[in-house]
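Cast an eye over this sequence plus tokens and walk me through the fold:

***
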Amino acid sequence: MLKTSRNFVIAIVGPTAIGKTALSIKLAQHFNSEIISADSRQFFKEMAIGTAVPSKEELDAAPHHFIQHKSIKEHFSVGDFERDAISKIEELHQTNPIVVMAGGSGLYVKAVTHGLDYFPEVDPTIRTTLNLQFENEGLIPLQEQLKSLDLDAFNSIAIDNPKRVIRALEICIGTGQPYSSFLTNSEKNRAFKTIQIGLKADRPIIYDRINQRVDMMIENGLLEEAKALLPYKDLNALNTVGYKELFAYFKGDSTLEFAISEIKKNTRRFAKRQLTWFRKDDSITWFDYETDVDSIIDYINSQME
């Protein structure tokens, strides 16, 4: 075991289907460590195939935490994850100074590494109303509303992401203050140093890997998994790529072929948003997805000296 007076979290980030799980397992095995999953879609036990949950062999290769530990019927926010993940990391650091974290959910990674800004509680009916407005009128009216209420937020958040727009709007409406006024960008003190490793590839390679993964999901039974979840399609956990497209197919709004092509297209768009998020973080050191693991371990060791 590495002898060090400091505790570390090695965070593996990057777009979907780039190989984060495989690298995290290799690093966990090398450092005799355990893995914190920061993939918000993999928290739910009913959604295994469509969220690319690690296989049994992968889960057996190194201890994992925060994978399929919740039901889609349970509320589990990014704030809940921050609290529980920090608690687990502190526990693991009692016996090993190194913990590995992997995931493509940028906000959830940030929650652990930097902490979240505080937002006051607002009336939940505001979000319900905004969601209905989005379903009936689309995203553009909501974007225009946010632009008028909080221009700074309009210019800084992922404006094409309905969840982000609705979240900003509900804070503006519920508090009477701009969403951006609650963004302090002040980091919480953590009892560990974070070493962030990003995996990258040329865009055609990423897109090809995504297309292959979706085809494999279909072969592995994604259609049957989505059909079993159809009664719960309105739950927030299922408003996600891989399921909502198949729900539209079950409803008769598209062919299966079109639904699968939409899953691939929307996953590619998701990967693009992931890269946009992570590239804003200067603390990430990027490696090509085919980089030999020993080179990455050498870099990590150099950051621990």
Q: What stands out?
A: The first strand starts at residue 8 and ends at 13. The beta strands are 8-13, 35-37, 64-65, 98-102, 193-200, 284-288. The chain has a mean pLDDT of 92. Residues 256-278 form the longest helix (23 residues).
